[in-house]
Amino acid sequence: MAGLTRRQLFAALGAGRLLFANSLRQSQVSVVRFDKAGVRQGLVTVDKYVLSDEEWKQRLSPRQFDVTRRAGTESPFTGPYWNNHQHGLYRCVCCSNALFSSDTKFESFTGWPSFWEPVAPENIETADDNSYGVRIEVKCRRCDAHLGHVFDDGPKPTGLRYCMNGTALNFERL
């Protein structure tokens, strides 16, 4: 630190504290990126997608906001994709993170789109949800959007049923 005045030293320390505080606010996550053709591009580190409630309300419909930001649930057989049989990729309605492929979608007869596996496990996260009994909540890793729940009554090969709210998804036809 030779050659620095006290003023320069304190200014440098202040700038360092500011950079450190900003890095804490702007956390990053690793997700698997998929191109528009649904081809896996690899693991990338991206900024966590964080908006205020007011910003989310401007970007989402009231129903999308309730489901993704307030952990709501659409009524069965009312969401946009429960009966979708097209080939494509399901992305997060909030941040476009790739979540599920039509290749793992199956008919669960529940009224919600169901999948036996995410397109990349790195793109979702799960947490215990005790709001209505014991369930496991599924969220988008990039923006923390509530997507639905995962149950252990699905088909082979995983035996899992990712029961998603269609309102929380956007479908990209391939």
Can I get a quick summary?
By secondary structure, the chain is an alpha+beta fold. Helix content is 21%, strand content 32%. It has one domain: Peptide methionine sulfoxide reductase (Metal Binding Protein, Guanine Nucleotide Exchange Factor, Chain A), CATH 2.170.150.20.
What attributes characterize this protein structure?
174 residues; alpha+beta; Metal Binding Protein, Guanine Nucleotide Exchange Factor, Chain A; six-stranded antiparallel sheet; three-stranded antiparallel sheet; 32% strand; globular
Strand count:
11
- First CA to last CA: what distance? 58 Å
Under CATH, the topology can be stated as Metal Binding Protein, Guanine Nucleotide Exchange Factor, Chain A
As for the number of domains, it is: 1
Percentage of residues in DSSP E strands: 25-35%
CATH-derived architecture: Beta Complex
Indicate the mean pLDDT: 89
**Structural class by SSE content:** alpha+beta
Strand count, sense and barrel status of the largest sheet are: 6 strands, antiparallel
Helicity level: 10-25%
Strand order of the largest sheet: 5-6-10-9-8-7
CA-based gyration radius: 20 Å
* Poorly predicted sequence stretches spanning 5 or more consecutive residues: 15-25
Q: Overall 3D geometry?
A: globular
The CATH superfamily is Peptide methionine sulfoxide reductase
Task: Give the class-level CATH name.
Answer: Mainly Beta
The SSE string, one letter per element, is HEEHHEEEEEEEEE
Instruction: Count every helix, treating DSSP H or I runs of 4 or more residues as helices.
Output: 3
